[in-house]
Amino acid sequence: MRKIRVESVSKSYDGEVILDNLSLEIPGGKFFALLGPSGCGKTTLLRLIAGLETVDSGKIFLGDQDITNCPIYKRRVNTVFQQYALFPHLTVFENVAYSLRLKGISSDELSDRVHNALKMVRLTGFDAKQPRSLSGGQQQRVALARAVINEPEVLLLDEPLAALDLKLKEQMLLELIRLQDTLGTTFIYVTHDQFEALTVADKMAIMSPHGTIEQLDTPKKIYEFPESKFVATFVGSSNLIEGTLRIREGIMHVEVDSLGTFAVYFPVEKTWMISGRKILMSVRPEKLLITKSECLGFSNHLKGKVVDIIYYGRSTEYRVQVANGKLLMVFEQNEEHFPQETIDYDDVVNVYFQKENVVLLEY
After folding, report:
1. What CA dihedral angle connects 307, 311, 315 and 320, to 10 degrees?
2. Which of 195, 225, 255 is the last residue of a domain?
3. Each residue of 269-309: pLDDT tens digit?
4. Using CA atoms, how far apart are residues 341 and 210, in angstroms rounded to an integer?
5. Domain identity same for 250 and 221
6. Looking at residues 224-228, what average pLDDT do you find?
């Protein structure tokens, strides 16, 4: 499968810039996610790739082919929309067969391809059903079957699971992963839901509210090593602590007013990593250990008071107020097999974390 390459693309509506000189390369045959807040331009980018909109400037390539001004019907690109867009007066079979009938495919080949597509999305036996009789997840599968029956090189999915409940959404995410793996087609998945993007993507791009790419990498690297304050707070949760960077004999520390000095280890050098400069420490809540007892062997230690406790079932979030008034979020897994210390409101607790768990960000 050929890759998609977006070169210096800009797009505005009524004078408002939606995409600003955006460049992006999407690998062929992979499950790629575009993640960003509402209004950041991710759906606009999808529509430009599909040919549903035209660029103001820049170019879009499918492999080496310039498809910037290529008509929709000449692009081997199909789209699955959030609303499914099924024909309510047609059966499941006829919905899936619709584009093949327009091409004049013979009846035998058409029937074989429709049944294979329905089998692929696990809807064998649903041929004669009407869309209104199907669940949301089943309707989404019909939309997928209709999209893949033409064997597109690229499948665009625009918030496809937004209307589904959490349990069904989790099931459909696994179905999409299985389908992409079976087809080997390039999937480009647009969402504002970080859970969806982290679950499905081989690679993902984080879009800023200003229509630019903030970070492009694997989900694991983006989560573990965010490159900006926006990414650290948009993808997951993060404790951001302002401080001053100190570098002595190649060893880095961060001084934080009223809290002390913290050991940090960051393997990547940045131009802004200068001793005496203001920076941000980012620490994920699950990387923190909370306890009323003392623990040895940790690089960093804070003391504070528990002001909030939020029970999520699988985990508990504690919010701990430290000496400078800042609230730290601490996530603790609820493990029945391991007795846990009872921590309550107003308890004075110790919070520990290792220097390797600190990500340094530009202030």
Report:
1. 0
2. 225
3. 889 999 999 999 999 999 999 999 999 999 999 999 999 99
4. 45
5. no
6. 95
